[in-house]
Amino acid sequence: MLRIRGSIGDWPVDLTLEMDDGDWARLGAQLQVVKPEASAAPAKPLNQDDALWQIAKDLLRKAGQLSGPDLLEQLEGLTGSAAAGKRLLVRLRQCAGGEGSSGGDTPLYRWIE
């Protein structure tokens, strides 16, 4: 399930999408930045956790830098769960391309690759 919350202009948006493993795999495939070489072995299809992880990395990569609360809100909206959003936040802080630092009152997350 994917929940999207926010607004379009003055209109509030709260949208829930039901997606199966095949839908997540197709979404994750669309977000792949580097295309595998033709000689490489075919990659296994992404499961839902892998797809969410790819989306979370792409979110921070495209933003460049986000405050902890803003990033957590977006990850919670992506996963539909506060706990799952926090797990992704921790993974981003600990992955090779992600970096978490204190920015005064709130932590800052940056993509450094």
Describe the structure.
Helix content is 45%, strand content 26%. With 113 residues, the chain is an alpha+beta fold. The protein has one domain (2-30, 44-111): Orthogonal Bundle (Arc Repressor Mutant, subunit A). Strand 4 and strand 5 form a beta hairpin. Helix 1 (21-30) runs parallel beside helix 2 (48-63) and helix 3 packs across helix 4 (82-94). The relative contact order is 0.14. The model has no long low-confidence stretch (mean pLDDT 80).
* CATH topology heading: Arc Repressor Mutant, subunit A
Helix-strand pattern: EEHHEHHEE
Q: State the separation between the terminal residues, measured CA to CA.
A: 30 Å
What is the averaged pLDDT score?
Answer: 80
Low-confidence stretches: none
CATH class: Mainly Alpha
Question: Gist?
Answer:
Helices cover 45% and strands 26% of the residues. The protein has 113 residues and is an alpha+beta fold.
What characteristics describe this protein?
single chain, three-stranded antiparallel beta sheet, 113 residues, 26% strand, alpha+beta, 5 strands, Arc Repressor Mutant, subunit A
